[in-house]
C-alpha cells in the first residue's frame, strides 16, 4: 500500500477514512460558487513544490514544500491550491516514478549550478520525452542563469509555443530586473504574481492591489501590502 517493501501501510478502509479527513481540509473547493477561474490553472498538483505521496493516497495527495505557503510541510489534496503557487509545467503523480526521478535530478543539477552538470543537463533536456517537464526546467533555468547564457536554454525549448513561452519569460525577468515601471496591464500575469508575492515596494503593492489583472493577484498584493505595513521599520509608506 505504501510502495515500500516490508511496510504494509494503511488498509483500504483506513485509506478511505484518511481521504475523508483530508478532503475536508481543502483550502479551495472547485464546487464552491465563488471558485475563481484562474484557480483551475493553479492547483497543487501542477505546483513545482508539490511532492506526491506514494501508494494509493499518492493518487490524490502530496506534501507542500513551499516555505512561502501557509501549508508548507502539510499534506494537501492535488486539486487544492494557495496564493504561493508556482507553476511546474507538468502534473506530478506517483505513477510516473521515472519522470519524477528525472524531475528531481534535473532540479538538483540546476540548483548546484555546476558548469559540467549544467552542460549534461542541457544535453538531457534535448532528449527529454516529456516536453512539458523540459519546458518547466528551462523556465526555472532562465531565472538563475546569467543573461548571456539564456539564449542556449531558450533554444532547448520546442519551436513554436514552448519557445515563445521561454522568450516571454526572459522578457518578464528583464522587467523584474530593471524595476517594473508603467502600469500593471503592461506586465504578464506571471510578472504581476511574482511582484505581488515578493515585492517590498509598498507603493507597487498598492498599485497591484488596485489594478492587478486578476482578483488573485489583487488579493495577493493587498495581503502582502498589509503584512509589510505591519513589519517593524516598514512604516506605512505610501
TrEMBL record:
InterPro entries: DUF3027
Pfam families on file: DUF3027
Name assigned to this protein: DUF3027 domain-containing protein
